[in-house]
Amino acid sequence: MVRRALWLLWILWPAFLVAGVAEFVFFSIFDPHDLVVFGRPLEASRQAVYALGFFFFWTLCALSGALTLALRGGEVP
């Protein structure tokens, strides 16, 4: 159980920090109301787009971290 908690900590905390930076950079370049998905403009509020963007970046970063730990192999210290 402790090992699993360590893995989650090693994956989710850095992913959270990087997702915050990625969201800041992305939305400082693109306005949420200018985004188009499948040829249609988004019809959500800016806060909703910011939240979805953050969770998208967090998931992407967490998957990257999980893949890195999985490919690392060996025993977890």
Automatic annotation (TrEMBL):
Q: Could you tell me the keywords of this UniProt record?
A: Membrane, Transmembrane, Transmembrane helix
Which residues span the membrane? Answer: 7-30, 50-71
Please report the name of this protein according to its UniProt entry: Transmembrane protein
Organism encoding this protein: Usitatibacter palustris
Q: What is the lineage of its organism?
A: Bacteria, Pseudomonadati, Pseudomonadota, Betaproteobacteria, Nitrosomonadales
